[in-house]
Amino acid sequence: MKYYNQNGYAAVPYPSVTNKTATVKSGGCGVCCAATVLSFFNFNYPPNQLAPVFIARGARVDGGTDMKKAAALVCEFAPGVSYCTTSSETELAQCLLAGGIAIANVGGDRPGHVGVFSNAGHYVVVCFSEDGKFGVFDVGSYDGKFNKPGRKEKVTVKGDFLLCSEAVLHEDTLLRSPNYYLFKKEGDAMNAVITNPTEAKALVQGKAGLSDATVQFLNAYKFADALFLKLANGMSR
Q1: Of the candidates 86, 88, 50, the residue with the CA atom closest to the CA atom of residue 69
Q2: 137 - beta bridge partners?
Q3: CATH class for domain 6-185?
Q4: DSSP secondary structure letters along 101-136
């Protein structure tokens, strides 16, 4: 799985009807989430390739990306992958534990709530679930983003991953519908092709470009070996 950050795509056009100069950096979190999900299933469609397709196929809308159309395109580009939607963190966790991956639809600031992952509508990738916590790739992350009041006490930042509780993710997606887009490969059972945790860690680090610090952080989990085996087998499918 490769982590794509929209801030690296300021030169890739992603215009909408009302914003002709928009780019993937300014409005393409959905594109980067889709590219990350595709890479999880071992399909290589980086944001600069997906953006013009999303525009041509109607997934680009004012304000961002129509994720229902984008999710359908992900499944089109990744044969054997299907998606469904839910607003249940229990179903989200079940999908992740069964070898899937998800995109969360977060809502930003509202009265009494500081948006954790964004001040406005945003998409992030939810990669894994362990002990009631979720591991998140924020495709719009930047230096200092999670040092701000209202955020820093709700997430743990380690390398590219963010770790948050079920309650934090629930509150951040509370007024969105649907909250989560769940992706899985049809017929998948997590009968690992890769069974050696050391091999799995090396594969995940290499394919995702994770830093040593990120790998060490993940390795501290009680179920670290199972997590790396899950990610490795997802990437190698």
Answers
A1: 50
A2: 125
A3: alpha beta
A4: EEEEEE---BTTB--SS-SS-EEEEEEEEETTEEEE
Give the whole-angstrom CA distance, residue 137 versus residue 83.
19
pLDDT at 112 over 90: yes
Please determine, for residue 189, whether its predicted confidence score (pLDDT) is greater than 50.
no
Kindly state the tokens that stand for 198: 């050391």
In one-letter notation, the amino acid at residue 25 is: K
Contact 228, 135 (CB under 8 A): no
Whole-model pTM: value is 0.81
Question: How far is it, in rounded angstroms, from Cα 228 to Cα 218?
Answer: 8
Domain boundaries, the chain: 6-185, 197-235
Looking at residue 87, what DSSP letter applies? S
In the sheet that holds 180-185, the strands lie side by side as 81-86, 180-185, 101-106, 122-130, 133-137, 161-165, 155-158
d(CA 213, CA 203): 16
Predicted confidence band of residue 111 (pLDDT cuts 50, 70, 90) = very high
